[in-house]
């Protein structure tokens, strides 16, 4: 799942304090998360429109990238949170990796900017993986670690490592301190994914600080991973990308 264009956030389900009926949770038709004290990087690569169409069901039309006809942006985000809770459970430290493409139409109806379709979504929290899989989405379980080192100039060196489920990659990033920036509150457009049980709709409600080009990042992917072979990322990708810190809640619901 993912929030919005990663140019803003980076830019991965419920509204804060939303009450979900017990029957809905028990049937596996709703996933609600509360995600706090999070640090995220987001960046963009591109694949051809034909490649993107092959990854997205026919009911959705992908949005071509501005200024590059025939190309579609792939938004990738890696993030870690001090605590993520699932359907009201105990919050646990959690890391997530994901990528999305934007869609312009659903069933022929034009969608708001920032409407997305996930390409992959993986986490190292088994409860979260299982909950999303029960909706019918192919969430991937990964092993993940994060190390943060304070540099002499006050900036931070962040090393994220994800392994397993064909999304093996590492990210080394030197990031600015953005704690003095104002907090942005943002309710994302509804995103969509057609899974094995039907269509899943998801939305994020967010409070975050974000700054573009605030993270100097090197992304190193396994050469045989889906990142490289299926989604168009180079083995080594160097960029200045968006940094985001904050908290958000997510709601994903199976609509059938």
Q: What's a quick, concise take on this entry?
A:
This protein is mainly β. Helices cover 10% and strands 55% of the residues.
Overview of this structure, please?
With 256 residues, this protein is mostly beta strands. Helices cover 10% and strands 55% of the residues. It is built from 4 helices and 14 strands. The protein has helices at residues 22-26, 49-55, 126-135, 226-229, and strands at 30-48, 60-62, 71-86, 92-106, 109-110, 116-123, 140-141, 143-150, 156-163, 169-175, 184-187, 191-195, 198-221, 236-254. Strands 1, 2, 3, 4, 5, 6, 7, 8, 9, 10, 11, 12, 13 and 14 form a 14-stranded mixed sheet that branches. Residues 4-24 have low confidence and may be disordered.
List the helices and strands and how they pair.
Blueprint: H1 22-26, E1 30-48, H2 49-55, E2 60-62, E3 71-86, E4 92-106, E5 109-110, E6 116-123, H3 126-135, E7 140-141, E8 143-150, E9 156-163, E10 169-175, E11 184-187, E12 191-195, E13 198-221, H4 226-229, E14 236-254
Parallel strand pairs: 6-7
Antiparallel strand pairs: 1-3, 1-14, 2-4, 3-4, 4-5, 4-6, 8-9, 9-10, 10-13, 11-13, 12-13, 13-14
Structural class assignment: mainly beta
| Fraction in helix | 10-25%
The termini sit apart by 17 Å
Strand residues, percent: over 45%
Looking at the structure, what is the overall shape?
Answer: globular
Described by strand count, sense and barrel closure, the largest sheet is:
14 strands, mixed
Uncertain spans: 4-24
Alpha carbon gyration radius: 17 Å
The average pLDDT value, as a whole number, equals 89
Order of helices and strands: HEHEEEEEHEEEEEEEHE
The total of helices stands at: 4
